[in-house]
């Protein structure tokens, strides 16, 4: 039987069609994810020290031995706003060895960021991002999330809208030493 004949036979079977469609969608999704994160850091997360909205300096290395979610966002980003309920839920359910740090791209106006945080009931640390930090992490679209192991290595990263389930699973997969 030729390959073409075998494929025709497969497409006549409903279960096989469904399985092939699922595989095709999964392949497209994995390919798109790989393309979107192609510039992301894959090994050790670059250290940084940034100011939060109250002017306090926050250093990434202070969170060693904890799982860390780095949530890069922009206030002008509609997808970032759509992701906020998931981010708030993740933050509200963090374990004792987990932390969420949000890094704002549009950090040139801290007062506007404080208003944005108040309007959207954001109760997690928001850091004033710099071009250097965004470049170090390969962030070129928003939102971008990094999930860090307790030793500072990157467990995974995403670009674009993440679901609550996806965020929780990625954080769960990260390892605290």
Fraction of residues in helices? Answer: 40-55%
Please give the CATH architecture of the largest domain.
Answer: 3-Layer(aba) Sandwich
Total beta-strand segments: 7
Alpha-carbon distance between the two ends: 54 Å
Structural class: alpha/beta
Strand adjacency order, main sheet: 5-4-3-6-7
What fraction of residues sit in β-strands? 15-25%
What CATH first level of the largest domain would be assigned? Alpha Beta
Sheet of most strands: 5 strands, mixed
User: Whole-number radius of gyration?
Assistant: 20 Å
Number of helices: 6
Summed up, the domain count is 2
Spatial shape:
elongated
Quick one: CATH superfamily of the largest domain? Glutaredoxin
CATH topology grouping of the largest domain: Glutaredoxin
What is the overall pLDDT average?
88
What letter string, H or E per element, gives the SSE order? HHEEEHEHEHEEH
Describe this protein's structure.
With 177 residues, the chain is α/β, with parallel strands linked by helices. The chain folds into 2 domains: 3-36; 49-173, Glutaredoxin. The protein has 6 helices and 7 strands; from the N terminus they run H-H-E-E-E-H-E-H-E-H-E-E-H. The strands form 2 sheets. A 5-stranded mixed beta sheet has the order 5-4-3-6-7. A two-stranded antiparallel sheet has the order 1-2.
Question: Which terms would index this structure?
Answer:
177 residues, alpha/beta, Glutaredoxin, 2 domains, five-stranded mixed sheet, two-stranded antiparallel ribbon, 6 helices, 19% strand
């Amino acid at each position: 039987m030729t390959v073409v004949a075998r494929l025709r036979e497969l497409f006549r079977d409903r279960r096989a069609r469904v399985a092939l469609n699922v595989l095709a969608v999964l392949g497209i999704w994995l390919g798109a994810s790989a393309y979107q994160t192609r510039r992301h850091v894959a090994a050790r997360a670059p250290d940084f020290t940034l100011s939060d909205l109250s002017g306090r300096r926050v250093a990434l290395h202070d969170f060693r031995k904890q799982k860390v979610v780095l949530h890069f966002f922009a206030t002008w980003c509609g997808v970032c706003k759509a992701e906020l309920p998931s981010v708030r839920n993740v933050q509200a359910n963090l374990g004792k060895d987990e932390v969420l740090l949000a890094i704002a791209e549009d950090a040139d106006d801290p007062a506007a960021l404080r208003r944005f945080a108040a309007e959207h009931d954001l109760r997690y640390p928001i850091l004033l991002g710099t071009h250097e930090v965004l470049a170090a992490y390969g962030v070129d679209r928003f939102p971008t999330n990094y999930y860090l192991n307790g030793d500072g290595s990157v467990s995974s990263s995403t670009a674009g809208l993440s679901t609550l389930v996806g965020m929780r699973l990625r954080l769960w997969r990260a390892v605290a030493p």
